[in-house]
Amino acid sequence: MFIARLAGIAVFDPAGDQVGRVRDVVVALWSGTGRPRVLGLVVDVPPRRAVFLPITRVTAFDAKAVIFNGRLNMRRFSQRPAETLAIAEMLDRHVRGEDGVEYVVIDVGMEPVRGREWRITKVAVQRPSRLRRGGSVRRRRGETLVLDWDEISGLHVAAEQQGAVGLINAFERLKPADLASVIHELSPKRRGEVAAALDDERLADILEELPEDDQVEILGKLDVDRAADVLEAMGPDDAADLLGELPPEQRERLLALMEPEEAEPVRRLLSYADDTAGGLMTTEPVILQPDATVAEALAQIRNPDLNPALAAQVYVCRPPTETPTGHYLGTVHFQRLLRDPPSTMIGEIVDAALSPLRPSMSLQTVAGHLATYNLVSAAVVDEDGHMIGAVTIDDVLDHLLPADWRDTAMDAEEGAAEPFDTETESLRGGR
């Protein structure tokens, strides 16, 4: 069983109920014999908590599922110094074969050796090759080989520099919030390597889901030009929140490197206090003119890249429809769009009775407004009646929850953990 293929695979109990998904495989590299011992799986269970599932409790593996015997300790997983995470720490490592050739690890294979014990026995590697073109040296992918564990060396030595392509490929199916949870648990060094290997759009999506300390750390490790590109790929409100955590000199330098049309809304958001409607809002809601049709509005909110809270309604304004807009006319909720004929102009069905927010309104006032009218988003309008943005419920919750809510969410219901389990603890070294 090649381990990278397990990433994101669903984990089921004997009754067929899904309890989570595989994040990684825990390995003891120094296990008294040549071949590393597989200790168990790291499984992500709701709400975003990583727990340890001993390999002895796994009853079956296949291409789409892992099945275990139903016994799962809900104590949060904490990696020990003698343990190695196969996907996070072994993939992309440079090793050397018996022939002296350097390879890059792209996967590792485990197999049962006796009873319920599993060992790492195979290593899938790729041999980098080089081509000279015009006097320069360019690297391309070489041949892929599967070697026996005993045929390679170098995985027991800490890597000074390590790529992250294999890790990223293994977690390709994860949503940004779930991959952010994986990256949060990595060492600072490994986080930097993963960030360097991600493309700008994917890194931007993940940064939006990470705690502020991780965001600042990762951004600080990027080249300033790339950091500016990643900020451009983020939502303006998320970019403004991140830049607000940086020293003024660094913030201004990055804003100066961003494209002017991308930097302008971010600068505007930075002018408002964090705990006001202006500081909470995004400048990119769905805005249409009153002569747009229901069909056009539905096409806009059907965009899969659109935040679900923003897709719940369209805002109707006089041109221009980029913030700050012309005069704000009102809102049309998606349920109303579903009830009217496609040819209907949205100006005929706009809800003008609901008062918009003002940028100076406090966080508590904004939260009360959304709760009172059962809204997931609300328009923010300046004193001249121009729409300047929209506040969504996810941003309100993000500011109402404690600053470390992403960490504490993983520790929720800690008191419900399974009692101390002798088999589990002896398997991982006696704790």
TrEMBL record:
Keyword GTP-binding in annotation: no
Segments passing through the bilayer: none
Domain (CBS) ranges: 350-408
Record-linked SMART domains: MgtE_N
Alphabetic keyword roster: CBS domain
KW Iron (keyword) present: no
InterPro entries: CBS_dom, CBS_dom_sf, Mg_transptr_MgtE_intracell_dom, MgtE_N_sf, MgtE_transporter, PRC_barrel-like_sf, SH3_actinomycetes
Domain of life: Bacteria
Protein name: CBS domain-containing protein
